[in-house]
Amino acid sequence: QVRLVESGGGSVQAGGSLRLSCAVSRDPRRSVCMAWFRRTPGKEREEVARISTGGSDTSYSDRVKGRFTISQDFINNILYLQMNNLKPEDSATYYCAAALWVCAWKTTDYNYWGQGTPVTVSS
Q: How many angstroms separate the CA atoms of 76 and 73, rounded?
């Protein structure tokens, strides 16, 4: 069992920055992949960024590429998402997820999820 607890969400004006954190209850390297997803009311959960815990290969959705950075701290077992130049369309609840076997975008590939942290970007 892996417990994931997100923090760092909040309200910010367009162009601002936030850093989300996800505390992982065990060494993230025991999962193949860690990722951030987001969801707005009435929409499907969409991928934001993912990182392979072994080689630190990263992948980003086109909507956030160049603005968001995913990283991991193996000493403190924390997954980060640095979000810069935020836009109103980035407003959503952001979820941290861990996959045991596959590093891909399908939500069904992820075995553990956090409870989410809300982000609101005003124009």
A: 6
Distances (CA, A) of 97 to 92, 109, 122, 123: 16, 10, 26, 29
CB 97 within 8 A of CB 112: yes
Per-residue pLDDT of the chain in tens (123 residues, 90 and over written 9): 899 999 999 999 999 999 999 999 988 888 899 999 999 988 999 999 999 988 779 999 999 999 999 999 989 999 999 999 999 999 999 999 999 998 988 888 999 999 999 999 999
For the chain, the maximum distance between any two Cα atoms, rounded to a whole number of angstroms, is 40
- The two beta strands, 117-122 and 10-13, are parallel
DSSP string over 19-49: EEEEEESS-GGGSSEEEEEEE-TTS--EEEE
